[in-house]
Amino acid sequence: MFRKEGLTLYSLLQVKSGGNIHACMQACRPCSSPATGLISSSIAWRNLREHVDGIFDLHLKDLLQDERRCRDMIKEYDGIVLDYSRQRATSCTFKFLLALAKEAGVKEKIDMMFEGKHINKTEDRAVLHVALRAPRTEKIVCDGKNVVPDVWDVLDKIKCFSERVRSGSWVGQTGKVLKDVVAIGIGGSYLGPLFAYTALQTGAELVQLLANVDPIDVAIALNGLCPETTLVVIVSKTFTTQETMLNAKTMRTWLIASVGKEGIAKHMVAVSTNLKLVKEFGLDPDNAFAFWDWVGGRYSVCSAVGLLPLAIQYGFNKVNQFLEGAWSIDSHFRCAPLEDNIPVILGLISIWNVSFLRCPARAILPYSQALQKLAPHIQQVSMESNGKGVSMDGRPLDFHAGEIDFGEPGTNGQHSFYQLIHQVITAVYSPTHVCEPISNHDELMCNFFAQPDALAYGKTWEQAKAEGISDDLIPHKIFTGNRPSLNILLPTLDAYTLGQLLALYEHRVVVQGFIWGINSFDQWGVELGKSLAGKVRLSMNSVRMKGEELKGYNYSTTYLLNRYLKGKTLYKFHKSMLLDGKDKVHLRDIRQLVLLFFFDLIYHMTITSYT
Ligand SMILES: O=P(O)(O)OC[C@H]1O[C@H](O)[C@H](O)[C@@H](O)[C@@H]1O
Fold first, then answer.
1. Are 233 and 183 in contact (CB under 8 A)?
2. Taking a C-beta distance cutoff of 8 angstroms, is the pair 71, 54 a contact?
3. 22, 357, 469, 514: which one has the fewest Cβ atoms less than 10 Å from its Cβ?
4. Does any ligand 1 atom lie closer than 6 A to the CB of residue 246?
5. Might you give the EC number(s) for this enzyme (predicted)?
6. pLDDT in tens, 475-501
7. Is residue 341 a contact partner of residue 332, using CB atoms and an 8 Å limit?
8. How far away, in angstroms, is 235 Cα from ligand 1 center?
9. What's the gap in Å between 188 CA and the centre of ligand 1?
10. b or e along 115-130 (b: 16 or more beta carbons within 10 Å of the residue's beta carbon)?
């Protein structure tokens, strides 16, 4: 009944209908434990597979007429409103989904997470990012130790340091007040901080974040900065990530040229779990802000990774509010019954769309420009966490898990890819940064409220005809609708609600992983790419230093690498090229010399038919 291809939203509309919902309800069998270890062999999963057949008859425009259903599909908690009535699901669907959550032991797994159990089995680690936002009085034990006091030691250190930088009492080596901060990191050490930092932006930025190892990015970051008044923050959980370490070395060279080696302690600090390597890099451990291996990189926004830049820029008060917002959702996630638990409901909706309706693409569309970096952050949180092909115990999955996430703030996205929007819409319904533009915000929100219904209802031939559209244009102007979305409304966008939003998305991803039975906390696929890059690095050095021939690559890679190395003889990117009079950057020169390579990745996700 399904077409044999994925990544298409239209599959929803092309499938043949089958059965009806009441028949499916009667067919519902009591649940029992999965026989093979995969959740797909459970009765709860099979009930959903049978149930999904009945759904294809139903159109959202009909489902939306049932007010009781719609009322049941709106949940509120601590100012957040979740409306999932525009999902292609009935109340019965949610009964089946909740049965699946119970079958998968979601509640028990949430408890294990909060209890510091080593649920990241492949790395033998606890998963305790929730401990990062726990109040000082809370007790969260990991490996026999309450970790909350350690968390607060670092928070106190962040408070003290950030206040000194902000007040000007922390001065650079030459006695000048620091005016600029560059935070270097990549992946989780960049995307999460960037999301939070951008969301709270007020206009006067002290901090900038640098990720890419591309020399142009480095040059742009340094452009106009004076080493004597610049603080560099190296952010790396492992302190081994090549890109970050290379950028850190470039920055160190840049600083030393002006303030000398002895000035580094005043101009460079680090955020890491690896304090030994921080010291070996030449930084004073007193200038390091620690975190712990039980914080995954992509879940590290609430550690010093995200909080140090936030505290320096916006003050520690905002950091406190951010943590309180996240903790509000953490507490709800831990304690609320599954049927009222907003992150659990969000996770179940994702499971329903991906594994049963087979819609593995999700657009995240905040109707708030301040949330412009939400989608890039969630791309990593979701796709690195749940882009897994095997279960926790190494069995290949026989169902589809993981989504393709993408997004853009509305209304920009409307003018780009809205033909494909499909699942999540986030909005702020009261503006925070009111310059004057109440009417601008109203305009924005008109679009926000219009889009979900446009997607749900579509437009029929008859409606188009009644609008006087000519027959030849009607095929282009009718829309089948029935595209699901869900809405999240925040009362405002401030540090508190930002923390709530972050925790909601983090926990949604975790719930999905709990149900699919995968490990949402490791990233071995990324490691493969890293080790292959290491091999290429060695080969490049052998060619350059020893004049050796490239060996061990296929024809295509050898050809491209040789072309690159040949072009590289023109490329002389060194200190004097980067700097002119110590702080002036030759962007144009660098641009001319850098060879650009890019590639299109064609990712084909195959979804096989149900039998
Ligand atoms: O913070 P770092 O140790 O430098 O790691 C930065 C990033 O490295 C890799 O790409 C991992 O897959 C990410 O999860 C991590 O956030």
1. yes
2. no
3. 22
4. no
5. 5.3.1.9
6. 877 888 888 888 888 888 999 999 999
7. yes
8. 10
9. 6
10. ebeebbeebebbbbbb
